[in-house]
Amino acid sequence: MSTFDLFHVSDEERARAAAHARMAATQAAHIPDIPADTPLRPVQRVAVIGAGTMGGGIAMSLANIGIPVTLIDSSAQGLERGLARVKDNYATTVKRGKLSPADMEQRLALITGTLQMADVKDADMVIEAVFEDMGLKQDIFRQLDTLAKPGAILATNTSGLDVDAIAAVTARPQDVVGAHFFSPAHVMKLLEVVRGAQTAPDVIATLMDLGRRMGKIAVLARIYPGFIGNALFRNYTREAHFLVEDGALPHEVDAALKKFGYAMGIFAVHDMAGNDVGYQTRKAQMATRPTDRRWNDLILKLCDLGRLGQKSGKGWYRYEAGDRTPQRDPELEQFIVEESARMGIQRQPMDENDILKRCLYGMVNEGAKLLEQGIALRPSDIDITYLTGYGFPAHHGGPMYLADRIGLDQVLADIQRFHAQDGYWWQPAPLLERLVREGKRFADLQPAA
User: How far apart are CA 318 and CA 275, in angstroms?
Assistant: First the structure.
């Protein structure tokens, strides 16, 4: 059993973690097979398709660095609402004294709304930011293929869809790239740049540079369900849910995560975001998903009970009117205990160390798989993705850095223990096994040239 203290970090180690994060941010910009002096494509005007929260935030990020933006939506109401939201966001920044009224007007003047897709014609880059629906995105890219000027970069803001399948409907797959912004896009510092099989090197270099100009950390990923960030996040959330089925209660899981350094526990996050996010998709997937592994459907059952989170006054916790503080709910806890019994699970008390290991080591194991397959270039790219986009506690330096600190032999031993207990999801990554055999760390890996 590991004797590493997951909860205590010395000042010296905090300083080391901060130095690692700085190095990781610098390293992420370097792509071995794309020379640093690659000529960039001009980006003097951008069109953003979809005036929702994401599209509006992307438009602001561009206007903030002086780039004129055409914001396109399919409905007049949606466009009006989107432009009003942009104005409100800027007004809030002015109120806080972080932007002058003159600068606000200057930035708003750079954003033009339209309902005409044909207005992409002058754009050097088009960023599609509509719903996560493959059919819808492909339909838009078919139109862009006809309407956008030759050499325009066509970017899709997707959190996990196959960029190659989107590029395939165009006659210019070399110009298509994934640009996964994080919400709210004008605030969040992470940009996952997703390289398709045929994406041209200068397209990648241009988007990476644009991310830097917008004040973001751009991290390159290959195509994989969820790319880097959401691929690891799936493992984190899945184990948290299994822990609740196995014997922990939501407040116990959240308490361990907060003690580790997260600002919020995962169940409080679910309640804040809304437990119904992704509900339809997950319901639809139930019919066709493999039956050789365990799945967690508690969150769907909560939605069926009307427990949507803060917006309905109850979810994994209950909420008093006008107060967003999560309160334990005996009714919910009783429901969880009954569900465990219905599934034939003998509930066991959960130690905070095991709670943390199950949430974190699933991410480390998935990270090792991404490195092995070349989805992520280097372990530090995974770390900076997590530090920048997912609230991973900065003083721990990121999941892969933390695994090296703990000792990969100890991490693997626990993963093997969880695999023996729980099967499929804990299949140890071959890369992790190899590194342990060779007495190496993730930090010893170098990206392929």
Answer: 13
